[in-house]
Structure formats: C-alpha cells, structure tokens
C-alpha cells in the first residue's frame, strides 16, 4: 500500500512542484526583487517637493503588505477584485486567472519585505564612500551602480535567500485560489484515497527536499560571494 502511494502519487507531486510551485516562486521572486529595488531606492532618496508624495505612496505600500496576512492578500486579489466595479471604467471588475493572481500577490508581498532588506543593505554602506565617489566626479547614479549596490548585494544575499526559501513554502497558500501546485495536488489525491496523513506528510517531505536544496545553494552562493570579495580586495 505504502509502496504504491510513493510510486503512484509522488511523481504527480513532483510534477506539480516543478510546473507550478517552483515556477510561481521564481517568477514572483524576480518580479518582487525588481519592485523591492525600486521601492528601496525611492525610500532612500533625499529628493523633496512633490517626490515626497511618491515616497509616501511607497511607504504605504510596504506598510500595507507587511501588516496584512498573505492569505488575505491572495483572497483580495483573486476573489475581491472582480467586485471592484467602476461604471465606464471597470464595469465587470478585475477578473484574473489563478496563476496571474498568484504572481501579482506573491510579487507584491515579496517586494514589500525585500525592499526593507535592500534598503538596510544600501544604508549599511558607509556614507564616506558616497562622498569619496562624489569627490572624483561620479554622479549619484553611477556611484550607486558601481560602488554601493555591489557591496549591498553581498550583505543582502543571506536574507534574500531566506526570503526565497520562505516564498517556496508560502506558495502552498496558492491552493486556496485553485492553483494546482503541490499542496493542492496532495489535497486532491487525499480526497480520492482517504489517506490525508500520508499524503500531507509526503508533500511536506517534498517541500523539505526542495528547501534543503535551496539552502545548500544559499550556502554555496554566500561562499562564492565571500571568495570573490577577498580576491577583489587582494587585487586592490
């Protein structure tokens, strides 16, 4: 019985994992990092005037997504937006496919959390390096690209890697909006074979396997980054 469960159902869970779980996590994380970088740069900007309104909007966005549960955010985007009906503009509301709704929600959620990581990493670089770059005629944009961001990247690798691993696990919530990822597949199978303990334990094992591989990649990436930094310092 147990052998047949492994041979019959484990391939289905892995297939859903690679097709939906990992794909959903990778796409959302990439988009989330783009959102996070833009948000962090806006929030550390020292521009005044009308730009303060933009900063306030981004600050509100970070507060909103960090202060509300991810599951609630998924429900609002997928189940709630269709009811956002505006005559003449959105007469039928905003209806999104489950996968699209998942991408949008996970990206925005990741962007809010990762923006704080990136902002802290940028601000950890000594202010003197900005001043030194300015003294040799480098503008703010070039200083950011060539000096500040490479150093901030090294600092942010561990927390961002942890965020990605957390995102892989959080994709299980996508089952609530009918995305057929690993957890949803295990639920469907459990409803057929009446073995919820075995099926949920099996999908937990697959999640643990995925996250263990990602943790190993995180450690390798941190060592590679550290080795590269030491080689750069030696050359300097």
From TrEMBL:
Q: Which residues form the ABC transmembrane type-1 domain?
A: 18-215
Query: Which UniProt keyword terms apply here?
Result: Amino-acid transport, Cell membrane, Membrane, Transmembrane, Transmembrane helix, Transport
Task: Kindly list the places in or outside the cell where this protein is found, as annotated in its UniProt entry.
Answer: Cell membrane
Instruction: State the Gene3D superfamilies in the record.
Output: MetI-like
How does this chain sit within the bilayer? Multi-pass membrane protein
Matches recorded under InterPro entries: AA_ABC_transptr_permease_3TM, ArtM/GltK/GlnP/TcyL/YhdX-like, MetI-like, MetI-like_sf
CDD domains named in the record? TM_PBP2 (cd06261)
Note the superkingdom of the native organism.
Bacteria
Q: Where are the transmembrane segments?
A: 20-42, 63-84, 96-114, 197-217
Q: Does the keyword Transmembrane apply?
A: yes
**What family does this chain come from, according to its entry?**
Belongs to the binding-protein-dependent transport system permease family.
This one is known as: Amino acid ABC transporter permease
Source organism of this protein record: Lactobacillus leichmannii
